[in-house]
Amino acid sequence: MAIDDSPSSIFAPWPDRLRHAALILLAAALALSVIVALGELSPVRACAVFACIAAAALVPWRLHDASTSREDVRGVNPVETSAVSAVVAGMPDPAVLLDRAGRVIHLNTAAAQLAPALRKNELAQFALRSPEIITALREAIATAEPRRATYTDHVPVDRWMELVITPVPVPTPFGGTDKCMLMTFHDLTPLRRVEEMRADFVANASHELRTPLAALSGFIDTLQGPARDDARARERFLGIMHTQATRMARLIDDLLSLSRVELSAHVRPEALIDIVPIIRQVVDGLEALAAERQVEIEVDLPEQPVTIAGDREELLRLFENLIENALKYGASGGRVTVSLSQAAAGESSPEIRIMVRDFGPGIAPEHLPRLTERFYRVDVGDSRNQGGTGLGLSLVKHILNRHRGRLLIESVPRNGATFTACFPRPKTQVPAQS
Predict the structure, then answer these.
(1) How many helices (H) and strands (E) does the chain have?
(2) DSSP for 36-61?
(3) Does the CA dihedral 252-254-255-260 come out positive or negative?
(4) Cβ distance 295 to 327 under 8 Å?
(5) How does strand 95-98 pair with strand 104-107?
(6) How high is the pLDDT of residue 353?
(7) Rounded to whole angstroms, what are the CA distances from 353 to 264, 302, 343, 402?
(8) Which candidate, 418, 351, 390, 431, places its Cα nearest to that of 209?
């Protein structure tokens, strides 16, 4: 950068220098005046001394105040400047810059969310408790070479992460070079979920689709052979084939929905949703099924909005599965109740609870722990007759896990069952999306 040597730039700092040196000049003038009054110094010599003092105070040792001396530069660590902090803050992945000893110099918002215990000027090993991270960090500090490590974070849901530690040469305050450690975290969860989803889909589809496919193939062979001219048999077989095809379509739909939810299980929804109209919409949509099963749906919902952080389509699917299950398997009770309750504000973990209760035969205690497993059925024949796929409650559980909620199941034989979906209250109340 060129320095402007014009007269205006040279003399521009003089008013500032005069203001800064005013106290020195005033003190010198008073002292010399006293000495002259006492006769210890002649006025001419006093004026000469004052001129020397004024010249020393006002001489422009630096032609421009904006320039910084080497002494000032050496007083600031180049790595701790705002420019380096801005670079780390702008990285899309969680990033932490450490000094050679492993203390945190800078970290971005994503890293603070991933590891809330990280603090500036504190050792990163105290905040990152994973053995894989600590081992990789110690090796990188000892050898000043790049290191990689993969680990699994189990809280609040399973996440697969990759840590990359890269030594970064940086200048020191005295003109040398040192090496800091840049830690970046990459989320491998989507890739891992896709692999698991592909494997689960193939395994589940091949297992559950075998029976309806075999039935369809058998009926088709019968219609093409012995029952070719039998109108009554053809009508009956076509009805069964339609039922099996509908079951296959619903099974594939449930498998795809379950896979999508599992794929994004580590990403918590942030949009605030009013769940009261969602529940009413589901109840209205199931009125036809309730009338067919001769079941009355009783709804006890508040008039004011009740908001949670959630995904609207997933919440629709969740409440539809819970209420539809109650209508199908608790129809003998004649009624189903849907209610909403909110925990008191003084409780340590306030929740919003939606309870769906039927008054049917209930569920035996030995079945309760396994109800949310894939394809688990209390009564296989009855479940298939009702059009169930064995995936409804598994889908409910995974949707609640993504919303950081939980599912409670209570049942007494011959006294019905109650399924309660519990959601945490949102931290920030903003207008909800209905």
Answers:
(1) 17, 12
(2) HHTTSS-HHHHHHHHHHHHHHHH--S
(3) positive
(4) yes
(5) antiparallel
(6) 92
(7) 23, 12, 8, 16
(8) 390
The answer to whether the CB of 242 falls within 8 A of the CB of 387 is no
The stretch 62-72 carries a mean pLDDT of 45
Name residue, tokens 């399973």: 158
Which position has the token pair 């035996």? 364
Strands 147-153 and 159-171: antiparallel
Q: Do the beta carbons of residue 321 and residue 372 sit within 8 Å?
A: no
Q: Where are the alpha helices (DSSP H) in 59-188?
A: 70-74, 82-89, 109-114, 124-127, 131-143
Give the integer Cα–Cα distance in Å for 165 and 129: 16
Average pLDDT over residues 269-274: 88
CA neighbor of 350 nearest in space, from 314, 301, 306: 306
Specify the amino acid at residue 7: P
Q: Which two tokens stand for residue 68?
A: 């910084």
pLDDT band at residue 363, thresholds of 50, 70 and 90? confident
Q: Which of 189, 141, 133 is nearest to 164 (CA)?
A: 133
* CA dist list (Å): 271 to 10, 155, 190, 279: 59, 22, 21, 17
Coil vs helix vs strand at 69? coil
Amino acid at 148: R
pTM of the model as a whole: 0.52
Query: In angstroms, rounded to a whole number, what is the distance separating the alpha carbons of residues 371 and 363?
Result: 10
Q: What residues have CB less than 8 Å from 340, skipping those under 6 apart?
A: 275, 276, 279, 300, 301, 302, 306, 352, 353, 354, 355
Amino acid at 229: D
